Amino acid sequence: MKRTFLFFAAMMWLSMMGANAQTSGDFGENNALHWELVDSTLTISGTGAIPDFGNDSNRPWSDNSVIKTIVIEEGITSIEYSVFAGSSNLTTVTVPTTLVKIGSGAFMDCYNLVVDFLNNNLIEIGGSAFRGCAKLTTVTVPDNAVFVGTWNRTPFDNCTNLMDINVSPAHIAYKSVDGVLYNKDMTSMVAYPGGRTTPFHVPDGIITIEEFCFEGSLIPSVILPNSLKEIWSGGFHGCPNLSHITFPEGTQSLGGDCFYAAQLNQITVPQSLVTIGGGTFALCDIKSFLNWSAIPQEITGWTFHSRDLSHSTLIVPKGTKQLYEVAPGWEDFGAVVEMPRWENTPSSYPNTLTITAV
Length: 358
Known about the structure:
This protein is mainly beta. The protein has 2 helices and 28 strands.
């Protein structure tokens, strides 16, 4: 009987210790931080950065999905990589004035989070920091904050209800026009709100569309300006409604994964295009590809990765068919046809103006 009682008491003690271990504790460098989880509210106090835990199992508190409210107290300076990612029930976050950095993926896939806690003390917001935050409809980037991070994405990619990304005129690096984010001198496009479902005309003067600028956007079509020279890697990555695009003469480079998993079926590229990166048109449903270049661009099989091109048509300039039929990557198209060439002379139409069309 005594042994039974001692065993029962020991189990109760272990159970209580386990419960305590799941609801509060110290962590971080030199255990300078303290956390406490009570009734779905996570409170973090102390001094320094909330560290990158590496993976979910290393977080000192339980699964992020149980958290509804986060209170971060004064003294905390940074939220590092993916700390609160997957907090699917999280609705409210309170941050201190000491917070200067929100790291890449910090609040990724927090579907119910209302992002109203960005303040002007922030100086860094990491790529995909708020990726997939479906409740986010409008955001104002603090005056001193710039987008950084190893993922090279905007903080608000795949936010499918986001309609406006704003900054004040005092912002150190960005300018917002009609809720679209550009660099200060309007030569580079930085971020497009992914919830918009109407065609968009990129302003004249834009030279560069930056990495993952339109990531996950619902945009159905886009008109590119004659000033455009380059679209960086992932520029239109994963745009599910984008079905066709024409690049203006002068476009020189398309980065890797630029239109990965977009639904492009009609593509026109200019003679000026020199560089097409790996995975640029991967998973696109290409039916016709009009290429104005007399010399096939150097590409790899990865450029059109995971798409059977045997039923797709490549249209090329007169006299270049044989070049494209043996060029790596281009040879995979089911049909290569040359553009027709019309030449009308005065003798053909003696009572009209002379028209020459190529």
